[in-house]
Specification:
The protein is an all-alpha fold. The chain folds into four domains: 3-95, no CATH class; 128-317, Tetratricopeptide repeat domain (Serine Threonine Protein Phosphatase 5, Tetratricopeptide repeat, Alpha Horseshoe); 322-399; 413-507. 74% of the residues lie in helices and 0% in strands. It has helices spanning 3-13, 18-25, 31-43, 45-58, 73-85, 102-141, 170-187, 192-204, 208-221, 226-242, 246-266, 271-283, 287-300, 305-318, 322-335, 338-347, 352-365, 378-396, 401-409, 413-434, 438-454, 458-474, 479-507. The protein is elongated, with a radius of gyration of 46 Å.
Length: 508
């Protein structure tokens, strides 16, 4: 046998296996092994044929030739050069599968695809079924949906306020909706809209812990879900309003504010979150912060129903300070803002007696002086006092200040002058009393008592008698003086009662 024949026989016995060939193409062979494979490919047509078939698998987009032939030496060299320059990642080992196992793998893949398709179809069916349950529940909820909590905080939930209840009570519609929402969650757990619906139902049923838990379930899935954050904040606010423990109430309100702040961080334009935060701040006693938030809200929404409610709250907050009340009365008197005075009387009726008294007293001090530097004129203050008295009487049923205003308006010019002088002296006695000058108060009171009686000022007489009685009580008299002072004290008290009775008679 010739050397040529021996060489070819030796080559046949050491042909490249499929495994070696795949590792060669993917770049996994070392340099020495690579040279051996390339040398063998240059001499073995069978291995070159295997290589050609492998290239067909790797490049299925290339049209197959109608005539099959072995690649030439030049073609093989170019192909090897291309393979050497291709990244090993280009031909993933998972693609290098011998043909004899391609059909079983294809069958397995097909079965997997069928299984996944079945799961996908089943998932779609479950989603459709849960959506049907939710749609039915939504229709029930919307029969009584208000978009607010029991304390009138605002909610942002996937429901519409359509009010189509035709005889069914809220408890019946909510019970039906609750059952449907449970069915939706049984089909598809973690359905956000279903949890939001349950949260709203529990809020309206005052099951506040349950409501908070439903919103929390959503936040456990998505911590930035703004509707759930808003709902949890509202639930905590409602819990605070019903809680008699001051510490627990404070903590609940603090947590509610934190939730509303979280919503505003995610959505600075959320009117619901800002509105709710204002009320939580107010109930927490953080009035300056609430006033700041009110101004921010009104800058974006100056005229809605919600805005009008916040304007009333602003008036209510400001009315907690007597100085703020006087400033508001001055402003409204100067601009003849009747609406503002009526609202002030409605929001802070307990401040109105002092406001009426102050307005009429200052009207004497500003007699015939026009408004200057933003201060109202005498006639403006009288007008404001009359508006406040009417609103106060309507709100409380107390009409006692009508006679007080009529008395001031009926004073003749000389008596107005006298009263101004007497009021100044009475104010001086107040200062003496505050400084513990009780003897001076008692000694200086008689002339005032006579002149107030002369102009029939029962209100200031009652005030003077009250001051004298207090002076006797706190003057720390000796035992010898105690009986005499007690008699005087009784006299002053009787005088005060008499003036009050006269006042009542004049009102009738």
């Amino acid at each position: 046998m010739t050397n040529k024949h021996l060489s070819r026989k030796s080559s046949k016995s050491s042909c490249i296996t499929d495994e070696d060939l795949y590792r060669y193409i993917s770049g996994q062979e070392g340099t020495g092994k690579l040279s051996q494979i390339e040398a063998h490919l240059s001499e073995c047509p069978s291995c070159r044929q295997n290589l050609a078939q492998l290239l067909e698998i790797l490049h299925p987009d290339i049209e197959e030739s109608t005539e099959t032939h072995d690649p030439s030496k030049a073609e093989l060299d170019r192909t090897i050069d291309i393979i050497q320059r291709i990244s090993p990642n280009e031909y993933s080992p998972r693609n290098l599968i011998p043909r004899w196992i391609q059909w079983p793998i294809a069958a397995i893949v097909l079965l997997g695809f069928v299984a996944l398709s079945f799961l996908g179809i089943n998932s779609l069916l479950e989603k459709h079924k849960s959506e049907v349950f939710f749609s039915q529940a939504k229709a029930e909820i919307e029969k009584n949906y208000s978009g607010t909590s029991p304390s009138n905080l605002r909610l942002s939930l996937p429901f519409n306020q359509i009010s189509i209840n035709r005889g069914e009570s809220a408890s019946e519609t909510f019970a039906t909706a609750e059952n449907l929402l449970f069915q939706a969650l049984a089909v598809r757990g973690g359905m956000i809209n279903a949890h939001l619906g349950l949260g709203f139902i529990y809020l309206n049923e005052s099951k506040l812990a349950n409501a908070r838990n439903e919103f929390q379930k959503i936040l456990d899935i998505r911590k930035d879900q703004t509707q759930a954050l808003l709902g949890r904040g509202v639930a905590q606010y409602e819990e605070a309003m019903q809680n008699s423990d001051p510490l627990q109430r404070e903590n609940l309100l603090k947590n509610a504010i934190s939730d509303f702040d979280a919503v505003l961080k995610l959505d600075p334009e959320s009117a619901e979150a800002r509105y709710n935060k204002i009320w939580a701040l107010f109930e927490s006693g953080l009035h300056p912060n609430a006033l700041q938030e009110i101004e921010i809200y009104l800058a974006h929404d100056p005229s809605s129903t919600w805005a009008e409610g916040l304007k009333s709250l602003r008036t209510r907050i400001k009315a907690t300070k007597s100085s703020a009340v006087e400033d508001e009365v001055n402003r409204a008197a100067r601009t003849r803002d009747r609406t503002a005075l009526v609202e002030l009387s409605r929001q802070a009726p307990y401040q109105m007696p002092d406001a009426i008294w102050s307005a009429m007293r200052r009207s004497l001090a500003e007699d015939k002086i026009p408004a200057v530097n933003g201060s109202p004129a005498s006639k403006d203050l009288c007008w404001a006092a009359e508006i406040i008295e009417d609103a106060y009487a309507t709100s409380t049923g107390d009409h006692s200040f009508r006679a007080f205003i009529d008395f001031h308006n009926g004073l003749s010019p000389p008596n107005r002058k006298i009263k101004k002088s007497l009021d100044q002296k009475l104010q001086t006695l107040d200062v003496l009393y505050q400084h513990g000058k009780f003897d001076l108060v008692l000694q200086s009171s008689k002339p005032l008592e006579i002149q107030y009686a002369k102009i029939k000022d029962s209100w200031q007489l009652a005030r003077l008698h009250h001051l004298l009685g207090n002076s006797l009580y706190v003057a720390k008299p000796t035992f010898a003086q105690q009986n005499a002072n007690s008699a005087k004290c009784m006299k002053f008290l009787k005088g005060s009662m008499l003036q009050l009775l006269r006042q009542k008679h004049s009102e009738d």
